[in-house]
Amino acid sequence: MPQTSTDLPARLREALAAADFTVDAVRDLVGPVADAALLRNETTPALRRTASDPSPLATLTRLFLLQTTVAVAAAEAALPGLVDRLAAQGVLERSVGEVSARLDVRPYAADDSTLWVVSDLTPGLDGLPQDVGADHVLGISPASTSLAQLTLRAPVSSSLDLGTGCGVQTLHLAAHSDRVVATDVNRRALDIARFNAALNGVDDRVEVRDGSFFEPVRGERFDLIATNPPFVISPATGDRLVYRDSGLPGDQVVEDIVRAAPDHLTERGWCQVLANWVVERGRPWDERLAQWLGPEVDALVVQREVVDPAAYVELWLKDSGHHPATGGDPGEYRRRYDTWLSWLDEQGVEAIGFGWVNVRNGGSGRHDLWDWPYDVEQPIAPAIAEWATAVSSEITSQSRLSRREDVRQETVGPAGAEDPETIVLRQQRGFRRARRADTVVAALVGACDGELAVGQILDAVAQLLEHDPAETRTTYLPVVRELVGEGFLV
Is 245 a residue whose pLDDT tops 60? Predict the structure, then answer.
């Protein structure tokens, strides 16, 4: 995409808004069946629903989302005065009577507003071969939306989108940052990110820089760093897809970012990373990742998923179009599969973990590493902020705590029994954590309403259960700190 003229993004934004080219409007247009098919990369139901609809919304949907040709007259009606200019920019291709898309332009619902995101066309629609070039610019993906849901949204002075791609995170960050720096090594991605910032009217506070990782921001510090780095764990040989392959072996790219982040954060600044990491054979995953974390930071690392090496290799070979089902050569697929799997075995990789790394600079050195593959509330960012508040709090016998409103108590036992066999405390929001509780913990949590100090409550519970008060305080004050750290008490 060449350098754009000053008014083209604004003119395009006006046309997209006038056509009501929004996520909800497109869903209403194509209906639930076709919308679900699109999520599976199948366009036929939506093509049928829009075939006889002359509206600008239907034209834009067919042109950009369904990647089919439309008549020149229909394109001109949907994009008045813009077809030739967008063709010159490489967004469209025009023939004598038809117009087709060379880039994807799609609506994106974010922060209670509609954004529009330009990227390369979605590969593999309708089972066609996936032809993905080395400089492919990925559009809105599950990874980008996961990072957006993870990222804290408190107002900040400066933020960094490290490895911006098409600029999805930059658009989010611009909504609550005075200044955003977006970096990448892919020149096409930088051009598209710059266009997307202008398309959404935030280019006045976005600076796009070319360079690898922290090199373009050497000596600078930010209040917030959000990054979905090219984290695919591979032997760093053969063809490289810039959007997913760092060129570094294993998970070194993630380790380097986590270790270097504090030098680029302000006091109490955050770095939030969506990442893969190696689970070494015979070694706990959290023991290894804990070594990446310095004493100057608080860190919450959450492992959301673990996959075996074979499943991992299959996933990414399909993503790059090498699987025979997506048009790849069977012999080449097997060769790549075997090479990749052999390398993982040589490196002692038992599995690959996927999850979140949240690092706050200038903390107390609290490092929590959770294996949490269970359902969570999205966006999860508020729960990350609550964790940070909790671990910064000093909990003593004089602390006055309250049970979080969403915490429920579940009991299990024989009908009519005086005491339950099991007591479970369960959160309904955030991480939706659950933990077993004994009688003392259940009574303590139930009594925490902000009125009495923790020590007073423990003394009362000890008296009620005929326990030694001093021993009860000694035993359960550490448990209270855990309950605060895990979000059961605030």
Answer: no
Verify that 278 and 196 share a domain, yes or no.
yes
Q: What percent of the chain has pLDDT over 70?
A: 94
CA–CA distance, 33 with 175 (Å, rounded to integer): 33
Q: Range of 377's domain?
A: 142-384
Averaged pLDDT for residues 198-216: 96
353, 384, 415: which is the final residue of a domain? 384
Name residue 300's beta-bridge partners.
Answer: 358, 368
Write out pLDDT tens, residues 332-376.
889 888 988 998 999 999 999 999 999 999 988 999 999 999 999
Q: Which of 384, 412, 440 is the last residue of a domain?
A: 384
Using omega within 30 degrees of 0 as the cis cutoff, is the peptide bond preceding 142 cis? Answer: no
The answer as to whether 466 is a domain residue is yes
Question: pLDDT by residue (tens digit) across 281-336?
Answer: 999 999 999 999 999 999 999 999 999 999 999 888 887 777 787 777 888 889 88
